[in-house]
Structures are given as C-alpha cells and as structure tokens.
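ENTRY TYPE: paired fold submission
RECORD: A
CONTENT: sequence, then structure tokens
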Amino acid sequence: MDKLPSELSGGMRKRVSVARALVGNPKIVLFDEPTVALDPPTSGTICDLIIELRDLENVASIVVTHEMDVVKYLTSEYARIGERGKIEFKDEGQAALPYKHEHPDVASWSGDFQRHRQRVNRV
C-alpha cells in the first residue's frame, strides 16, 4: 500500500491500528472506542475482526466503548459504570459463540472479575 496515514479512511486507520497492536503477538488487546465514528458496515468489520482474533488467534480483548450494540454483539458478559459511578455486571450480551479463554493471565483476571462481581452484588 502506497498511502500516507492522512490518505486512509477511518475504517482503514482502525484496521492499521489493530495490525500494529498485533505485531508482538499479544495475548490481550485493549480496544479503546474501536468503532467510534465509523459507518455501520465498517463497524461490523472491526467487530468481526475482534471476534476472529478471539476465535482464531486466542487473543483476549478488553473493549472500552459507549456503543452498547457493539458490547452486546461482542460479549456474553460485561461490566459497565452505571449511575453515580456504580459498577454493574450484565450477562445479557449476544456473543457470536460462548468462549472461555485459556490463557492463565486472562483466567486469573476472569476469576478476579467474578470475585469482584460477587462483592459488588452483596453491597
């Protein structure tokens, strides 16, 4: 590709950002607003890429977004900050496939997440 960054579309810039993040073969990737300001088809492409990374490359993702449609498409369980800063845990997502990550760091984080969830639910 012979284009400067300023010549790329928003969707292409997002894909380049994902490609750059994957250079070191990470096991966990943080996506900060990965679909913001993208048209729906391009947003869907980015979401499908995140799912492919999970399913084909065993890469866990942490997605920060304000777009609840994206959250529900990507996840089966999520945490959000509700009114007055209260952390709320939800199980109502519509993930393409249920998935449990086998990487020990992610499994450890998931266990911490579950313990925190139980503490918050008791408050």
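RECORD: B
CONTENT: sequence, then structure tokens
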Amino acid sequence: MHPVSFALLHQGFPETDVQLDAKDVFRHCPRGGLSELSVRRAERLGSDAGGMQQYWRVVVTGVRAAGDTPAVRKARGAFFTPSGITRYIAGWALRSATDTVLEPSSGDAGFLVEAVARLKSLGADLPVVEGVEIHAHSAEVGRERVRAAGGDPRIEISDFFLVDPARRFDAVIGNPPFVRYQDWAGEARARSRKAALAAGVPLSGLASSWAAFTVQSTHFLRRGGRLGLVLPAELLSVNYAAPVRKFLFDRFSSVELVLFEKQVFEEAEADTLLVLASGFDEGPTDHAILRQVFDADHLTTDGPSVRWAPEDPAAKWISSVASSDARDILARLTKNDCLSTLAEWGDTTLGMVTGSNRFFALSPDRIAELGLSPSDVIPLSPPGSSHLRGLSLSTSGMTRLGKGGSATRLFRPAGQPSDAATAYIAAGEIAGVSDAYKCRVRSPWWRVPLQRPADLLLTYMNADAARVVTNQANVHHLNSVHGVYFKHDVRELGRDLLPIASLNSATMLSAELVGRSYGGGILKLEPREADLWLMPSRSLIKEHAEELQAAKAETLRLLNIGRLSDAVVLVDSILFPDTVKRAELSTIRTAHSTLQSRRTTRGKRG
C-alpha cells in the first residue's frame, strides 16, 4: 500500500502534511465522503501516488459535499467515469491544439481533465475547456481539477437544457446522466423532450434521460464535429431509442460503437457502451463500426472491428453483435417457413397486477392458517418464474410447489367473502394494503382483475434463456411472467409441442436478438419483443411431431439436471436434420453463445 501525500487538501479535510495511507484517508474524512470504492482505488495506485494527479484521482472521485451520497448521485443519474474511458474518448475526439470541447453534465470534470492533457500533448499552452453541471459542488470540484491539470475551466452551473446552444464546438464528450423515465419527470423532462423534438427526434414518454441529452449535445457541435459519449447499452435494444439510433445514422458521416464484456460502473444497474460519432451534419452513413473490449482498461484504437450495415437504422442494433452469417441463416429459415414469429402462433400479454403480491399470493399453509374457504382463492402460478424451467406446469407440479411453501393460490373471493376472508380484508386495510396504487384505483380494492388462464407461460426475465411452458394446470399468472394465448387453429399443436420445439439453437439466438439485456446479466422480453421471437413454424413442428413427442421424456430429464445445452442439441437433431447444415448450426450456436456470454459476463461485478 502506497502513502498518499495531502500537502494540499480539498475542502472538508484538515490541513496537514502527514503521510496517510488509503485506510487513513477513509478514517480521517470528517464528512464520510470517501466511498469504499475510492479506498480500493487508492490502494491500487502506483509508486507515484504522492503526485498531485494521483491525489485528485483518489480524493475528488470519492469526496462529495455533505449529503451528496451515492444514492443522491444515482437519483440524478451521476455515475463518475473511469479514467481509462475519459482518456480514450478525449484522445479520440480532440485532434488539434485549437479544438474546442464541451462536457455536458460535467460532474467532477473527468472528461475535461483528460481533454486538457490531450490538448497540451497537441501543443496547447493553456487549454480552455467548457462544461455544464447542475450540481454546484461537483462543478467547483471540476474547476479545481481542471486548474490543477493546467487548464482554464469554463464550467457553467445550470440545467443543460436551459443553456442556449451555440454550434461552436469541435467535440462534445461526456457521460450523460442516466435516470429512468419513472424518475425523469416534471419541467426537466418536458424541456428535454422539447429540445429533442427541435432536432427532429420525437421521444416517447418511456425515454430515459440519456436519450434527450444525446440529441441536445449535438446542438452544440459545428459542422464536421465529433460526439463521444458513454451511453447505456439499452441504446442497442429498447424501443424508445429507435429515433436516437436513426438520428445518429442520419446526421453523422461515421458512427463507431465500443462494447464492453464486463460491466463498467459498479454503482449503476445498466450496462454501457461508447458512441463515437464524427462528421456531424455530413451524414447520413449506412453502417457502423463495432469494436468489443473486455473492460475500460483494455480500450485501444487498434483492436479488431467489424463493419455493420443495418437495413433500418431505427431498428434494434443488438443484432450487430451477432455475425452476419448467423443472421442470414435465420432469415433463410424464416423465408423457407421453418421459423415463424410467436405472434403468428398467438398473442402474448402481461400478467395480472395485484398491488401487493405479499397480501394476495398465498401458500396452502397460509390459507389454512387464515381459515379461508376454497371459494376465497383461485389457482395461481407462484410469483417469479424459477419453477417454469421444464416443459409444462402440471397439476401435480402445483401440488409439489404448494407443499414446498410456494404461493399457489390468489386471494380473490368469487362473490361474498367468507367470514375469514372479511377479517383478512380488514387486516389488509389496517396494514395499508388498500392504499397501494393498484388497489386504491379499483373497487373493491381486494378484487384483482382476472385474466383467463394462458395456454403457455413465458419467462420474460431470464438469467440463462427465455422459456415457454404449457399451462397444463390451467392456472392464472401474475406479471412476473407473460401469458401466450394461441390462435384457435394451432392451439392443440402449440400447447402440446411448442415448448419442446422452442428448445432449438435458432430460437435461443432469436431471443437474445429481440430481447434486451439488463444489469446483472438478465435477458428481458416484453410482449412486443416476444411477438418477434422466432419459433419453429407450425409446418415444421407437424413434420416432426412424432419425434418431438418421443423426445419429451429425455428432454425433460436433461432440463431437470441442468443440461439445457444438451437438450437443445437433441431438439436441433430432430428439427433440422436436412434444412440446416452442421456448419450452419455451429454458426448459430456460436452467435448465441457470444451474445449470451456478453450479457452474463457484463452481469458479473468486480
């Protein structure tokens, strides 16, 4: 562990020349402003840890004003960026000593500090760098950091969307705040959407903050300018980002994406990527360059890259990560009627929303304890989807789940509640369950709106792979899973064989392509995305119905012992003996493995 000199300490620390190691720094911070993460970073500093640059790296990334806690920073979407990324983007964006640069939402000016270093290396004497930051303390810290690096900071304290845009910058670089739509509200949200619309980008009400920041940043670029941003990886996949994806292709002559295998931000719940777009107002471009690296410490301009040309720039970009050969094979199988979308089989819908699963979802033991009668409850697939990893949810399976303590019943009195149910309702009112939003907007509050039992249950939040299972027990389901309702003419075939037939390599790959990846390595499929999920067509299943039926027992055995990949190989051998060559299957499996590994690797922290 190397000592860190604090001859010049920032506000909030006692003035002293004593040598402190990283743990001493943590103990002596009177505001509790150094996070454990900053201490770990301090312990990893090199032998020159006494230098001023290292001092700022340790102190300023961790020290905030009293009350500016990680939770507060997360609420405003402020996640401070690793130096490997700030240095890389500054090096890419700034190409001349006279380049002008802006960092929107500059925080502690991590990008501007690296911009100063880059401009100095290009021959600038006293680089002037500009930024906008809404948080006064962070702005002041940023100014001090820029001065310490030998630059002239011009950081304005303001809402970025209140700053009059001037197209005078050669480069706009930074890490826009990431606040999801639920918390991105009020006047700030209205201003951001208005600014995006002024650039011809209509953002839906589901858009998170970064989308408007990305568009607004281009309002400050001069013709030919460069945009280098750290953005959530959901840019690739979410529907609300479609106009942003199209905007980047339309307005820039070159777009490059840098993807990470490992999650970059420990505090955030989102995966990230880099967008490097150049030639503003010199577009459109018809392709993007993709580069993938392990983490922020492995960024290089010399690594392998691929050229990707989407048919529609507004469509999801997640397919860019898969090989073009794999995408071509899926397209051919679809054209030849071997694959069809789930929407061609039927409708996929959200499950029921109770307002309080803890109150409404009950185990058999809890029902007995409350003295509820059979008419007070109805059969329910337990909350979650961990029990849906086989081929069907059967009546005997429900019995086993109930004996194991799972909530296999939904509290929903059919008519007049029994005395025991009336007492339970009163207890819920005392506990405040009736005040939950979904409860208080319905009458009576304790009667959950029903949906008829689905034909299939679809696991839409998945660590490994999305699954569909037959609802053999004919139970209701909550919004922790989706329900699939077959068209009448395919209902019998679909209920019987689609779950086993879906366990093939093409369908596995398609799920990764149409779904979206969340922090923690989770694959999520919303109903509109599930509609696009490629399944074996009805004609293909009919052709191999006897073989699929015969393979059910062995497939279920493999699933029960955790050998999903072996089950997929088995189903592949049944469905694609002639239509897909061995080399093509290998291509599909490799593409699926690449996407799945990328998703799950990013979900691993540390």
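NOTES ON RECORD B: Residues 582-602 form the longest helix (21 residues). Residues 323 and 591 are 6 Å apart (CA to CA).
STATUS: closed
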